[in-house]
TrEMBL record, chain A:
Transmembrane segments: none
Domain Activator of Hsp90 ATPase homologue 1/2-like C-terminal: 23-159
Highest taxon above the source species: Bacteria
Family: Belongs to the AHA1 family.
Protein name in UniProt: SRPBCC domain-containing protein
InterPro entries listed in its UniProt record: ASHA1/2-like_C (IPR013538), START-like_dom_sf (IPR023393)
From TrEMBL, chain B:
Gene3D superfamilies registered for this protein in UniProt: Winged helix-like DNA-binding domain superfamily/Winged helix DNA-binding domain
InterPro entries: ArsR-like_HTH (IPR011991), HTH_ArsR_DNA-bd_dom (IPR001845), WH-like_DNA-bd_sf (IPR036388), WH_DNA-bd_sf (IPR036390)
SUPFAM superfamilies registered for this protein in UniProt: Winged helix' DNA-binding domain
Transmembrane feature ranges: none
Positions in coiled-coil regions: none
Name the record gives this protein: Metalloregulator ArsR/SmtB family transcription factor
Top-level taxon of the source organism: Bacteria
Length: 161, 124
């Protein structure tokens, strides 16, 4: 199992996830740094991500959208605040309008990712911070898409058992 | 503060509640502010009773609360800030667990490094 630990801090509105992968740091980094790989895991299978722009340099932007079964699109963007290949990445994650233009009125999340070599594999620590509860709730739309996906995955596992 | 995990039954109720497009839409609307069941019913091509049923499923999953005001039944998201935060964080956790699963699968099938285009931001 990959997810080693999660911590939810309701008072400070932060979520931390620690995952261990059986692969060297360089390869885990490429899942973030290569847009074609990124789009294979960022969105759930029912809402696959398409990465239109991908500039992992300080001040650079990543622009993406996720497409649902009925063709509906959720646009998002990252603004890179700090990057140290292949071990650390910090960015602001936000919503964009239908044209992909960042929507300044909607919530943003600060995400920090750190990769460290550990026991021949890689430990990934992901830390996300929200400014307010309202922000978190606006993110529910995306979370719900994933929640469904999880439900379907659980059903598949049950059927295969 | 570390929060308890959702138990299996609560997770089932949550996923069931969110597995329907109408219920997701009702939830989105109620996040924006309280609204009446009759107003909701006008928004969908279905009967008042059918909308009520959807609201009841959301209510059982702890996503919304119903409140009677005069002749109106109002629907709103759970008012307790802590339970709202917990719900949002649970959904976020589900999203990230899914992402990590997919990352793990990609790493398992990915060819060895250095055999195709190099990662961005590094010289080769």
């Amino acid at each position: 199992m990959s997810v080693t630990d999660t911590r939810k801090d309701l008072e400070n509105l932060t979520f931390t996830l620690i995952a261990d992968f059986e692969a060297p740091v360089e390869r885990v980094w490429r899942l973030w740094a290569d847009p074609r790989r990124l789009e294979r895991w960022w969105g759930p299978p029912a809402f696959p991500a398409t990465v239109k722009e991908h500039d992992l340099t300080p001040g650079g932007d990543v622009a993406y959208f996720m497409t649902g079964a009925e063709g509906e699109q959720y646009h998002g963007w990252w603004r890179i605040t700090s990057v140290e290949p292949p071990t650390s990445l910090e960015f602001v994650d936000g919503f964009a309008d239908a044209e992909g233009k960042p929507d300044e009125d909607r919530p943003t999340t600060v995400i920090r990712v750190r990769l460290t070599a550990r026991d021949g594999g890689t430990r990934m620590e992901m830390h996300s911070t929200f400014d307010s509860l309202e922000q978190m709730e606006q993110l529910i739309d995306m979370g719900m898409a994933e929640g469904m996906e999880q439900a379907v995955g659980q059903m598949d596992a049950l059927l295969a058992a | 503060m570390v929060v308890r995990e959702l138990d299996d039954e609560a997770v089932d109720l949550l996923f069931h509640a969110l597995a329907d497009a109408t219920r997701r839409d009702i939830l989105r609307r109620s996040v924006r502010g309280e609204l009446s069941v009759s107003r909701l019913a006008e928004a969908y091509p279905m009967s008042f009773a059918a909308v009520q049923k959807h609201v009841a499923v959301l209510e059982r999953a702890g996503l919304v609360m119903k409140e009677r005001r005069g002749r109106e039944q109002l629907v709103r998201t759970a008012p307790d800030a802590l339970s709202r935060a917990r719900r949002a964080l649970d959904l976020l956790e589900a999203a990230w667990r899914g992402r990590v699963d997919r990352m793990t699968r990609l790493l398992a099938e990915d060819p060895a490094p250095e055999d195709d285009d190099p990662p961005r931001g590094r010289d080769t």
